[in-house]
Write the structure tokens for this entry.
Amino acid sequence: MPPARPARTANPADLPPRDEASLRERQRQGRLRVRLAADWRALVAAVGLAEAYAETDVVVAADAGFSDQASLHLHLGPTDPPIRLRDTSLGGMPAQAGGGGADLVLPIGGGLAEGNRRGGAQVLADLLEGKEINLDSGGEGTRLQPRRELHTRLDLERIGGGRLLLHRAIVENGLVAVSSGEGLLPSPYGPLLGPFGNALWTAGGAGSIGLTMPGLAQLGPGSPVLVGGAVGWVVGSGSGHQPQPRRQASGHARSPGAVAAVIVDLHALEPGWLRPCFFEAQGSALLLPIAAPVALIDGATALQAAANDGQLEAPVLDLSVPRRLKPGFGTVSYASLRGGRIEVEGRGLRAAPAHSPRLAEAIARELVRRLEENAFPLRLPVLPLSPRPTLLPLEA
């Protein structure tokens, strides 16, 4: 293998901009040049930003994290006599009537109250695997919808329509969770051993969506992303959206930052991509990979997408303190996290990912293939995500 050529510096402002129309025309002709984020960084290191930019149109970034902040929205057909659903359970899990006669909303989390290590994530997985689930409901009993009880079984083909809404689908950056308390602390990311026995990091660092496109700048309402093997759509800002976090000089967020919510058709999801799971003392959650294209529209975008793990940081937070504002211990580089050890308060901690790098890479490769084959829409946002934060504390 020939030695890598020395990297050459370039002024990002000197690189020629690209427009969406030219990129889509290249895609239509089968000439779109697409790279994984890791391959893009390696190319920039080998040949410099200017030459790498001349050889690349789109970079693909991906995440695969755990979340219980999602809900399944189902549109069921009519019964005879009609029923207006109330007090409903789906697959043994409580579901909320969605306002219509037979619309249901099932949280992906939950399961603690039932004590059976099942929640909405497991119900979703059962449906996608072709299993039947129980639907039990009491009716409100109106003159036009007089039925008072419904007991039946559903599978995916008997559900007229459905959507999975991911309220916190894409987060600009993650955090590093630690515990200063004694003993084992259950957390939404996995068990934390205290005091300062281990650390769990929640985002993928370089190659993740939010650290490849700071501010989620190329995502807005209507932007397409690849979710669990299906085309999903950004619907707007997500839960906990903080569009103005502290940032590095490069523009990359030092904290979770901006958040995008995504919706995807239930019947388009592919079961092989989803991993339902259950966290002790927390409930069920879903491990779901998401990939997004990052169009290299100018030199600044290209330079930000080339940032490596040594240049990117995540905040270290103490989850053992049950308050809204957690004690922080500064930031650590993703290079240290990927190396498996970090230092907090003078102590060395083992660090492990609370996400799936393997699944993220797999969905990224799938999106590269679809973009190259013109089987995935390439669009720049018409509108950006809202500048208004959604993380507003409730005061009592």
About this structure: Residues 1-8 have pLDDT under 50 and may be disordered.
